[in-house]
Amino acid sequence: MRVTRRQALLGAAAALLPVPARAAPEYRLEPRQVADGVWLIEGAQDSIAPANGGAICNVAMLKTPEGAVVVDTGGTLRHGAALRAFADGRLGGVAASLNTHHHPDHWFGNGAFADRPIQALPGTIAAQKAGAQGLSDGLYRILGSWMQGTAPLPATAAVEGGDMTIGGRGLTVMALSGHTGADLALIDQRTGTLIAGDLLFLDRAPSFPDADLAAWRAALAILGGLPVSGTIPGHGPFHRDSRAVVQTLAYLDAFAARMDAAASLGLTPAEALAAGPMPAFAHLGANPAEYRRATVQQWRAHEISALPVIGGSV
Length: 314
Known about the structure:
The longest helix has 22 residues, at 122-143. Helix 4 runs antiparallel to helix 5 and helix 5 packs across helix 7. The protein has helices at 5-16, 77-90, 122-143, 213-224, 243-264, 269-274, 289-305, and strands at residues 32-35, 38-41, 59-62, 68-71, 94-98, 118-120, 157-158, 162-166, 169-176, 183-188, 193-195, 230-232. It is built from seven helices and twelve strands.
């Protein structure tokens, strides 16, 4: 079809007109009360992607007369704002927030809670400060407009392990490690609910960017021995048995055995990647992507452990 000079000019002029701004995507929360005054906003079981806006971690809220105790604040400022709106509208506001560890899906929503105390273990605060820019750059590349206005805000106050009270609600805080160098887990004393952060995964493949498997196993032994009434893992559904402890430990053991065997056989990382997830866990959310990332992240440690010992040293 022949384009006339007038049509060409009209097309050029139209190209110069301002483009209407796209409506920002929205977070649609589905809060659920799982125990007396304990609310769970469950995250997607996938890896961070535009389809979920980075809203992949579980967020817990504990109702108090002074507002909610918010455990983890979401993966973007706008995710945090949606969570804050629920707390303000249904739970009387916010008393304080806690960040369980430094992975960004758990604390990049801190900006929406900046007017109230935001607490974390000292090691978590240090890791938040050290990694903030790199984590932010990576999420902006993945999530685009979901990240609008997000600027990393590390926790503002350090908390240690032990008993504490926020807004009249008693909490037992545990300073553990394994998933990262500093992992906070807590028990709500009123209901016996364990909020475990990413020390526990259920029906979703664990992530390993900062994992120390020996420390993680030790933390699982502690969590598995607690007399709790129910558990909120960092990723996965609320449950009243030991499923998350059992599944997470089984995954760690199977993954370590897979990596050790591959390294002992002299395989390359590419060959270990090609094998895919361990068959018993291939169905978990975020697999095979999480298995592939974990292989790259953990390969060097298992390769070194497979080297022969010469003269009493590796």
